[in-house]
Design a protein that fits this description.
Blueprint: H1 2-23, H2 36-39, H3 55-65, H4 78-81, H5 130-139, H6 148-157, H7 161-169, H8 176-188, H9 196-201, H10 209-219, H11 227-230, E1 243-244, H12 257-261, E2 270-271, H13 293-302, H14 326-337, H15 342-345
Antiparallel strand pairs: 1-2
Length: 352
């Protein structure tokens, strides 16, 4: 009888252990920390049902983002072109890949991407999710110029990564899809919402007379007329996340959205970037043509170029732009700089 009881006990323990294995390890949920300025003004962020935010997934994604293992020769990481100190862009006109070849596009900053409701990413909208956006740079010959099969093989052979994937996704078998899911989880945590203007909107500080005048110029259709594309205090993303031809060129060497959709009506259209963190993200525009914020303002004031797909919002194109005075330009610039967030570029959670 005593032997039979031991057999039953051992069977019960084995059954419990097997049951635990079948359930598997569940990573720790990590909902995004929604800033007050967002929760009171805009709808909830977009989180894919098949890639929920977890503590382990974000930690893995951060490690991957800063790891040179993703590049073919082990010399550059995602963070090379998306540096925290520059609001996750770089200071190059167009970014340079591992082979020293410059591309044709300026590196886009990375923040508040969880609120990209149309789910088109990149300057030209070529990536239809943040996860898919993370795929391309690895194999792009002017970026990390690697091969996903080789990257996965290196990650699988690494002494740390299989366990980290096990913790994040309940499997130690590494795939491209899980790798990009982890990177996207980290990127969705990159939230910028503590600029001077955010603090002003929350009643925590005041703006100068010049900054307030700049805001007025920004919002007036007969002055700066900036708000149609770049939002207003009720849209603290400071972008409409749409695509526009903003009068940079009369003819196009880069078709932008038109090359993706194949529609000639989209030629010369590029994503409207957020105006947040302009103090850190020069040079500006999709091709980095403007070195300073003053040049950007000059463009909209008197530098617009007409073309068949010019956006109707560029209402003053016939006279070159909105024709701001020097004082109005200075005031507008003062306001725009209130949208920069020094706590974002110094957040230790976003540093390597």
């Amino acid at each position: 009888m005593k032997a039979n009881r031991w057999i039953l006990l051992i069977f019960a323990v084995c059954s419990l252990s097997c049951s635990d294995d079948e359930r598997g390890y569940e990573p720790t949920a990590m909902p995004l920390d929604i800033p007050e300025i967002f929760s009171s003004n805009i709808i909830a962020p977009v989180i894919p049902a098949d890639n929920p935010q977890t503590v382990e997934g974000v930690a893995l994604g951060k490690k991957l983002f800063f790891d040179k293992i993703l590049s073919a020769n082990g010399t550059k990481a995602c963070a090379f072109c998306h540096a925290p100190q520059q609001a996750f862009t770089d200071n190059m006109i167009t970014s340079v890949g591992i082979d020293g070849i410059a591309g044709t596009r300026n590196s886009m900053p990375i923040f508040n991407l969880a609120w990209n409701y149309d789910k088109r990413f990149n300057w030209d909208g070529s990536a239809l999710s943040l996860e898919r956006q993370a795929e391309e740079p690895v194999e792009n010959p002017i970026e990390l110029h690697s091969d996903w099969d080789n990257v996965v093989e290196r990650l699988q052979a690494d002494p740390e990564y299989p366990e980290l994937f096990q913790l994040a996704f309940n499997t130690s078998t590494i795939t491209k899809e899980l790798t990009t899911k982890a990177i996207a989880q980290f990127e969705r945590t990159l939230i910028s919402a503590n600029s001077k203007f955010d603090q002003y909107s929350l009643g925590q500080t005041t703006l100068t007379a010049q900054e307030l005048n700049g805001l007025d110029i920004f919002l007036r259709e007969d002055k700066g007329d900036c708000f149609h594309c770049h939002g207003n205090p009720n849209n603290p993303l400071w972008t409409n996340n749409d695509f526009h031809n903003n009068g940079l060129d009369a003819t196009f060497t880069d078709l932008g959205l038109g090359a993706v959709t194949g529609d000639p009506n989209d030629n010369g259209k590029f994503r409207t970037p957020s105006l947040r963190n302009l103090a850190y993200t020069a040079p500006y525009m999709h091709d980095g043509r403007f070195t300073t914020l003053d040049e950007v303002i000059d463009h909209y004031s008197e530098g617009l170029q007409d073309s068949p797909t010019i956006d109707p919002l560029m209402k003053q194109v016939d006279q070159g732009g909105v024709q701001l005075t020097d004082q109005e330009k200075a005031d507008l610039k003062a306001f725009l700089l209130t949208l920069s967030d020094p706590s974002f570029i110094n957040n230790p959670d976003f540093q390597n």
